[in-house]
Structure formats: C-alpha cells, structure tokens
Amino acid sequence: MEMLRKDAPAALGTPSSVFYLLLLPTLVLWYIYWRLSRAHLYRLADRLPGPRGLPIVGHLFDVIGPASSVFKTVIRKSAPFEHIAKMWIGPKLVVFIYDPRDVELLLSSHVYIDKASEYKFFKPWLGDGLLISTGQKWRSHRKLIAPTFHLNVLKSFIELFNENSLNVVRKLRAEDGRTFDCHDYMSEATVEILLETAMGVSKKTQDKSGFEYAMAVMRMCDILHARHRSIFLRNEFIFTLTRYYKEQGRLLNIIHGLTTKVIRSKKAAFEQGTRGSLAQTELQQKLQEQQIQQAKEKEKEHGELITSPPSTTATNETKANQTQTQTQTQSQAPVAGLSYGQSAGLKDDLDVDDNDIGEKKRLAFLDLMLESAQNGALITDTEIKEQVDTIMFEGHDTTAAGSSFFLSLMGIHQDIQDRVIAELDGIFGDSKRPATFQDTLEMKYLERCLMETLRMFPPVPLIARELQEDLKLNSGNYIIPRGATVTVATILLHRNPKVYANPNVFDPDNFLPERQVNRHYYAFVPFSAGPRSCVGRKYAMLKLKILLSTILRNYRVYSDLSESDFKLQADIILKREEGFRVRLQPRGAS
Ligand code: HEM
C-alpha cells in the first residue's frame, strides 16, 4: 500500500506531462469542431472555381511580398477565370468577382453592406467614419453627409477649385522641361482643395502645407497594406512590438494633428457666427481688392467714372448665403450619368432632386457637421472627428491618383492630348478666364478621357465586403457562402474582354454615349455603386475637370514610358510603384 501511494504520482505523470498528453486530443477535437462549424463554408466554396492553392495555406504565399508583385500575382491568377475566382488565404475564403451581373447583385444590395475585416486596420486612423462603419450608425451618418456633396453645394466651390488649380500651375513652373513625379503635386493640391472646400477653412490657417499630411497618409497606407500582406502584422499584439507600430503613432500624430486643427479653427469661426468657407471669404475679399485696384488704375488712365465695387461690409454669413443662393439659380445640369463618374442610368442618394434637399442641408460638409452637433445629438464631437478624417483621406488620395494617371496617359497618347487641348481651346480661346460650371459640362472629350483613365486604372482597385448571408450569383450556378470575403476586382471588371472590345487599349471613345448605352450599368464602377457608393463622386469629377483642364490650358504633358511600363501597386489606392513620371512644357513654347 505504502509503495502504491509512493508510485501513484509517477504513474499519473507530472502536471506538465498530463498537459501535453491532453493537448493533442484537445487540438484534434477543436479542429474537428472548427471544421464542422465551417462545413457550410467549405461545401459551397468547393463548388467555386479558382486557381489551385497549396494544402492548408492555400494562396497565403501569393499575398506575402512586395506590394506590386502581390497585386500582379492575384490579378494574373484570377484573370483566366471567366466570372469569379476563389482563393484561400489560410483559413480565409476570398472570392473575386468581375462579372457586371454579379457586381450589381452585391453593390446594389442593402444586405451585403458590411465591410471586410481588412478595413479594421483603419480603425486607429478613421475610427467609425463612413468608410468603415456599418449598421444604424453608418445609415444615419450617410444620410447626414451625402447632401453636403450635392451639386448645389459643389457649385459654390468652383472659385476655390479654380484658384487652387492656378496655384498648382504656378508651382509646376519649378519643373518646366524636367521629368518629375506629378503625384506629389496632385496630392498637395487635393489636400488643400479639400481643406478650403469641404472643410471650409483657409489653408493659410495651417502651419504647414497639405504636403506633410499627404505624405503621412501615403506612408500610413503602406503600413496598412503591409498588415494586409503579413500574417504576423495582422496580429494586434505582434504589431505593437514592431517598428511599424511606432511609425504609425508618429504618422497619426501628423494626420490627426491636422484634422484636429481644422475642426478647432472651423469651430472658432462657427461660434463667432461665421458660416461658409473661410477660404471663399478670403478669396472674395482678394478679388474685390483686385477689382478696386484695377478700377482705380483704369480711372487714372482714362479719367473714367466707375461704379463702386460691391460692398465689403457684408458679414461672412451673408456672403456664404449669397453664394449658396447664386449657385441654386445657376444652370441645372443633368445629375446622372457620365459627367459625374458613373454609367448613365445608375442612380444613388447623390442624385436626389434639388427640391428634395432641405434649405439647411445645403451646407458644406464641416458646416453641416457643426450645425448638426449644435442643434442636438445627431453627431458627437468624436464622430465629427472620425468623419473629417475619413473625408480628408478618401477625398484626396483617390483624386491624387486619378489625376496622376490621367496626366501620365495624356503624356503617352499625344494624339488624344491634342484633342483635349483642341476642345479646351474651343471653350476658352485665348482667354485666361477661370472655368465656369457650364464650361465643365462642355468638356466632353476631357470627360471621356477621365472616365477611360478611371476604367483602366481605378484608384480603388478592390472593394471588399464580408458576407453575413449567402450570395447566389447571376453569372452561373454559384453560391458564395456567408463568412466569405467578396471582392469586386474593379480592375478586372473594367478590363473584362466581354464588355470592352480592346480592354487594354486606352480609348476614350469607350465612353461615347452610343457605346455606353449597350453596356451593363455595373460594368463601370470606379466610385462603387448602390447604397455604399462614393459620396464624393460628383465632387471628384467637378474638381478633376477644373484641375486637369487648368493644367492642360497651361502645359503640354509628355511621358517617356508607356502603359506596359507601369508597375502597378495596390496599397489601398492604386499607384505606380515607380512614381508618376511626366515632363511638362508650357503651352505656346515650342
Ligand atoms: C477619383 C476619386 C474617387 C474615387 C475613385 C473614389 C472611389 C470610392 C469607392 C470605390 C468607394 C467605395 C469603397 C468601398 O466600398 O470599399 C468610395 C467610398 C467613399 N468615398 Fe470615394 N472616391 C473618390 C473620391 C472621393 C472624394 C473626393 C470624397 C470626399 C470628398 C470621397 C469620399 C468617400 C466616402 C466618405 C466613402 C465611403 C462611403 C460609404 O461607405 O458610405 N471619395 N469611394
């Protein structure tokens, strides 16, 4: 008995050996349970076509590595499949869709609106802003924000679009005749335009130019993309141990520093009763001063009696109201279709009739946010900050990429550039006058070139959703199971040979109305579509037309490369790895 008692612990083993003895069966049981709980996912996934991956890890190794090679590999492997391609990234099922009929099902739905888990890496930066939020919060904020990008509001930005575009032209003089990366200029300009329009502050109120902010955003996107591509960096704990985490903190200081300052300065003006863009007020004052000066000079020259310029004593609020009223009486453009970046026939909440928008809602973005906060609990200070961060990011990086691709393509296709320039000369002649809203409607060929740029090089090349319900596709007898991530591969959709006869050829005539009419609405969705479409779509198109036409009225663009030399990288926003290298020559100089 005595012996038995002594041996008993040895027979049962030490606590650690018991642990190891139980570990294996526990793991096996857990694995069986895990597989069974995902049986539905595996069953339906097995029926989906896609490139063959490795056992267990699937295509994990395809998404690890430099950004440009990952993008190329994923596109290359998906391309041979006609409508849809499935890939396993470890345990994660990702399904790429690029048939317009399936894209319509996903994007037009009010059910499949939850963003994929990859968007969670944006959280420290954008919080629960419009891009990543979901449910009731997204719904109510979308309803609040969409009208602030209504055409009536946008028309009041035209002077600022013009003024900032001229500013870029002046800055570009430093690069005359040299090959340089135009993306830096486009980034800085798009940040400053956003500050002055949607945010309604003057760029003079900032210590530094938008350049530092734009560069911090670019670096931040690199970090987020690195997290997408590394299994280790995806883990929150491991991430905090890396240099990326420290750098993220530094970058967020710059990014949030600017947005905090913007809100503070706008709030201060708001509390003093000032509404509307402070930059707009400054610009109007400057124009008035110029008018007075010119009138005085004229008077001196000719001894002419001149009528006095408009009073400068009106309050900012009155002026902002005046601007808004003026814009309401300007020509009412067709609201749907090409001019605003989507297929004719597609409509979303930006296409509401003018009369459906209440008076108060005709405010620019940050004005409306502050007004709503003042009037009740529609939006809190934290939420305003999240939305400002979201609009600042979404509103600048996308248009910086779009305009840089446009200039690169103009540089490559001199014959097409000739036609754009001829159109602009037809509209403006020799005049240096700023563009009006009506002019932008007449830039038909430039518009087609812009659309073709967004087709071939969509700044947002992938739109990903996480399915909470199964999705039965239209293109074939396929069901994508709930739990999967569905990705609209815009870049493949836009180059679908069944839709575009020569998908890899830059041909602005793809957007001739007669060609458009025969195409599926969802074959062109650079701004997404449906309930989660881009709220900045019209803003982006109007701004890009003014910015790019101003550049091409002043410079001719050249490029030493062709599209086949582009090394595309999709670190959130589509870019050229080698930079957007172009050369400019002032127009009129031979
Ligand atoms: C060429 C320029 C632009 C392109 C190609 C573009 C593209 C897109 C796309 C594809 C989405 C959907 C993303 C997704 O579902 O994952 C989106 C969403 C969004 N965009 Fe844009 N965008 C552009 C410019 C702008 C501008 C100028 C603003 C604001 C001033 C803006 C604000 C937003 C916001 C807030 C969302 C989220 C909307 C929501 O989820 O309800 N974008 N954009």
TrEMBL record:
Species name for this entry? Drosophila willistoni (Fruit fly)
Q: Where is this protein localized, as stated in its record?
A: Endoplasmic reticulum membrane; Microsome membrane
Q: Which family does it belong to?
A: Belongs to the cytochrome P450 family.
Q: What is its EC number?
A: 1.14.-.-
- The residue ranges flagged as biased composition, category Basic and acidic residues, are 295-304
| Keyword terms, alphabetized | Endoplasmic reticulum, Heme, Iron, Membrane, Metal-binding, Microsome, Monooxygenase, Oxidoreductase, Transmembrane, Transmembrane helix
The gene is Dwil\GK19947
Residue ranges of the TM segments: 12-34
| Name of this chain's protein | Uncharacterized protein
Residue numbers binding heme: 534
